[in-house]
Design brief:
Elements lengths: L4 H9 L9 E7 L1 H4 L3 H11 L4 E2 L1 H4 L6 H10 L1 E8 L7 H16 L3 E7 L3 H6 L3 H11 L4 H15 L4 E3 L6
Parallel strand pairs: 1-2, 1-3, 3-4, 4-5
Helix pairs in contact: 5-6, 6-9
């Protein structure tokens, strides 16, 4: 049983209060790395167990402005699962999403579960390895230092949470 876009829209349209939960889980991930493997399997497992789950591919209409939709989905979720992968920190959008998730956690009982998929949690915490490469690219592309500091702080904070470490396996 999949959560349909229309069902999610009905839930959100009948709910004008951002504190009401429409989703049990908000999935944050780099699609390039994990969409068709680990994240797809994780999403299917949540939905099969009856947990309404927000995933961008299922919930966004073509041409929609995505930032307000993501902010609302985070606000209307009980928890977030953040799948860190080698390319996660290369995505400015993923990093902005991470900041929104941690802001939600600070002001509510929002649960955050980091999953380190084929990436070492210490690379996320200390911004080394692929995370360091990503920040070098963001700096080269002229990303403001205050924004980069916000992202670095968020990465260090989430890497200190109890999470799961998973290796990239051929079967996802």
């Amino acid at each position: 049983m999949r959560v349909s876009s229309s069902r999610a829209r009905e839930a959100s349209s009948s709910n004008s209060s951002p504190s009401r939960n429409c989703y049990h889980v908000f999935l944050s991930f780099s699609g390039e790395d994990t969409r068709k493997t680990f994240t797809d399997n994780l999403y299917t497992a949540f939905v099969d167990k009856g947990f309404p789950t927000f995933r961008d591919e299922e919930e966004l209409e073509r041409g929609e402005d995505i930032k307000p939709k993501f902010e609302t989905a985070i606000q209307q979720s009980r928890s977030s699962v953040i799948v860190f992968s080698k390319n996660y920190a290369f995505s400015r959008w993923c990093l902005d999403e991470l900041v929104m998730i941690l802001e939600r956690k600070r002001i509510s009982d929002h649960v955050v579960l980091p999953v380190f998929y084929d990436v070492d949690p210490s690379d996320v915490r200390k911004q080394t390895g692929s995370v360091e490469e990503a920040f070098a690219k963001h700096e080269k592309n002229g990303q403001p230092s205050n924004k980069m500091n916000q992202w670095k702080k968020a990465l260090a904070e989430v890497a200190d949470l109890a999470g799961m470490v998973r290796a990239n396996q051929a079967d996802g």
